Structures are given as structure tokens and as C-alpha cells.
Amino acid sequence: MSQGKETTVLALSLLISAGLAGGGYWLFRSNSTANLATSPSPNVASSPTPNQPIANSPSPSPTGNSSNLSPDAIVPDLEVSLPNPPVITMDGSVTMVKLMKQLQAGYSQKNPSTPSTYGLPDGRPNGSNKGIAALLNNQILIAANSRSLSAEEVTKGLRAVPIARDALAIVIGINNPFNGELTMAQLKDIYQGKITNWSQVGGADQPIKVINRAKASGTQSLFHSIVLSDEPFAPDSNNFITWPRDETTAILQALGDNGISYTTVSQAVGQEIIKIVPVNGALPTDMEMIKSGKYPISRVISLVVQRKISPVVKEFIDFTLSPRGQEIVTSAGFVPL
């Protein structure tokens, strides 16, 4: 065979091989997409961040600064095999109360025959940690969660479904004369009692009154992990106060002209009695900074369920991840996936 003919035959062979490979890939993608609708979703792990390493587990908890999550790639290995309950019972994050109430209302419009509740026992949420405990004790079906799951919680059968992004804002009272910014290192030293006067960070010569969130708070858990790298807080004293309950309004009111605390951006924006302090030169009100992970104190919030769930619980999750659910995420002050 001449060299020209050999070249032509080789080229045709390569084209046929490429076509077969492309067809096989298309068939694989088609089958994979079809299987997602009828079988438990595959476990997809988001990339770990320096502040929040991911445990090697069947359904790792999302990292705080993940920037590559999408609703199509985050549902863990859930098994829809339980009977439908009369009520979808939920509890958990105080941070997420506005969002959860709006999701309840949106879900009820589509599914009026399936009622839902948020907060045990009287409609007041009890915080992420207590919500997780209630889920493990089979008192509720969904826990709204603003922290990472521990390896032990995953081992016990819990699965986290990320639904939105959020960030913590460092806040001071509106009459505090401090108008600068803080670094993560300074923030850590303030909460460990190593920086105790505003003059040490360029402010007025007055003591810093530190207000910490309640221990049951998922917000405190996140702050502790990212800012302090899980090292101890300073002990309580006259100028270091651990708030007894997971609440925000009372903390903001207590800041005065020398206090500092932290809360979620959604709870800080629009508050006329506080100022938000930039951290590492960035403000958490910039959504692009949150999405990219450049703002250092950010997280993914999630719905946590047992691995085995009922169809209506799956429907609630699906609604939350739907375009309408993500619109509600935005209207509640969070960043959609």
C-alpha cells in the first residue's frame, strides 16, 4: 500500500475510534443522569480548605470556604426508603431561622398536604448543636446546620446537604470610635485575651469588651474553628463574656462603645446599631469575596438528615436546591450555591 493510502486509512481509523469513544462517553453520561433520579446520589466531596479539613468519610461535611459547589453535585448518598411522616419536623440553626421559615412557606405552596415545623418544642430553634442531637435522637427529621459535621456524626449515619453559603461578620457598636480593620491574627489574639485594649489595634485607649456566642451555637463552632484553629478561648471575665443563649439581637445591643462580637452577615446587614469591621482587607457584604473564598470567615450551610429518609423529606431537600429554593436563599440574605 502506498504511503498516501496508509495515511488516509490511519486518519479514518482515528476518526472512527474518536467517534466510538465520544459515543461511549455520551452513553455513560446519559445513564449516570438517569440513575441519579432513581437511586441514591453519589458521594461528592468538595475541596478542603486550610481552615477546615475534610474527614475521609462516606459523606463529608462541606467546607466553609468551598467555592465550587452546585446543586447538581452535592446530594450525598441518601436512601429514600422510609414511610412518609404526618409532619416534617425540623430544628437547628438560629442563623437560618428566616431562611427556614421562607423555605417552609415555599414548600407548603407546592405541597399543602404536608405540614412542617421548625423549632422544638414551641417553634423556637435551639441552635445547630442541639438540632443535630435531636436528629440523632429521632426527635426531628431535618436539622438546619451552620457548622461542619464531625466524623463521629457521619459514622452515626448523618448526611449534610449544602444549600447555601454564608459568612460571619465581625461587629462593633455604632458609637465605637474604631474605624480600622483587623487581621485574622489580631482577631485570634482578641478572643484569646492577648489583645485587650483597642489602642493595640490602632483604636482608642479603652478596654475591649469581648462577647462570645453561646457554646450551643453553630456560629461559635465555625468561629472557633476558623479564627482560633480550635484553640481555647480566653476564660470568662468582666471583659470576656460568653452569651448564655444562642441569640443575636441582645448581643448587638450589648456592644456599646467598646464591645466586639460576631454574627452572620444576614443578621448584621441593615442593623443601625452596629458597624461591620473589615477582616484581612475584605468585607463579608461582598458576595464575590464569599463565593471565591477570599473573605476568610465564611461557610456553607446545610440541611442534615439521616441517611435513610422518606419521600417527603427528599422533596423538601429537592425544593430547597431548585431554582425557586435558591431564589428564597437569596431573599433571606444568603448566597446561593
Task: Kindly name the structural category.
Answer: alpha/beta
| Number of domain units | 2
Mean pLDDT: 82
Our estimate of the beta-strand percent is 15-25%
Q: Considering DSSP H and I runs of 4 or more, what fraction of the residues is helical? A: 25-40%
The shape, in one word, is elongated
Give me the strand/helix succession. Answer: HEEHEHEHEHEHEHEHEHEEHH
Note the gap between the termini: 59 Å
Number of helices: 11
Number of strands: 11
Quickly give the CATH architecture of the largest domain. Answer: 3-Layer(aba) Sandwich
Under CATH, the homologous superfamily of the largest domain reads Periplasmic binding protein-like II
CATH class of the largest domain, named: Alpha Beta
The major beta sheet can be summarized as:
9 strands, mixed
Taking pLDDT < 50 over at least 5 consecutive residues as the criterion, the unreliable ranges are: 1-73
Task: Please describe what this structure looks like.
With 337 residues, the chain is of the alpha/beta class. The chain has 2 domains: 71-166 and 298-331, Periplasmic binding protein-like II (D-Maltodextrin-Binding Protein, domain 2, 3-Layer(aba) Sandwich), CATH 3.40.190; 168-292, Periplasmic binding protein-like II (D-Maltodextrin-Binding Protein, domain 2). The chain is 35% helix and 17% strand. The strands form 2 sheets. Strands 2, 3, 4, 5, 6, 7, 8, 9 and 10 form a 9-stranded mixed β-sheet that branches. Strands 1-11 form a two-stranded parallel sheet. Strand 6 (209-212), helix 6 (218-227) and strand 7 form a beta-alpha-beta unit. Helix 2 packs antiparallel against helix 11 (323-331) and helix 10 (311-321) packs across helix 11 (323-331). The termini are far apart. The model is unreliable at 1-73 (pLDDT under 50).
